[in-house]
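User: For my dataset I need records formatted as: sequence, then structure tokens, nothing else. Please produce one.
Assistant:
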Amino acid sequence: MSTEFNRAVSIMSYQCPLCHSALVNHTQYWRCENNHQFDLAKEGYVNLMPVQHKGSKNPGDNQEMMQARRLFLNTNHYHPLREAVIKHLDEQLPENAQQLLDIGCGEGYYTSEFTQLQAKHPELSVHGLDISKVAVRYAAKRYKNCHFCVASSHRLPYSDAYLDGIVRIYAPCKDEELQRAVKKDGILVTVSPAARHLYQLKELIYNGVHLHDMEPEVIEGFDLVTDQQLHYDMTLNGEEATALMQMTPFAWKTSDAVWEQLKTAIDLRCEADFSIRVYRRQ
């Protein structure tokens, strides 16, 4: 391996999704020593999702779901959640943290605000990863102070022990990948629905709502250090209620009558209920 390649490897952040060797930035593309090459999009992101790793032609949320999510998140009904996650990161990130990853970053609603942490951690780089190319393109175009890539959360394109922290809001990731990519004493912040999350929306669909299980997830190689429940009421207008329902996994079960009810809603009360947990790498 050449001296130039070794020097470039020392500052790289990505790992080849095909052979798992280091990717080196050559201004307009990333390339590994085995000549697997991934172009840098004009918006500034890199697509590290090989065709053979895709489960469909365009994995991730469809355009309708993305538009609904953008509309709803822009209302800031989830602002308390974002602030709570930032507070946990501020308190728990290692002192000299340099690399923070948001798994399932979507269009960057949470990711972009994690840059606040650079005031305390001046060397911190903020990364966002999502399987949806359309979402990542939007995020990269809008938030130039973060690093975005299209990739699978089950194949994190980062070298071993590269990350000081990971945020996982509703996003799946294999335990072994978390163990591999997070440094010793690094942290993992997870967000999942708590017992009564969106209870009022579910009441419109189901006969008898089953409350979410709030048992903390056991993640091999990590210790649970903080377990917070964040619960508050939201007051939604018709557009917001419709967009929120479109974001949910039970939207496909929603009848035409319920969609109409949501569309015409005025001051619909709906509970937000989250479990926010911080784990530390052993």
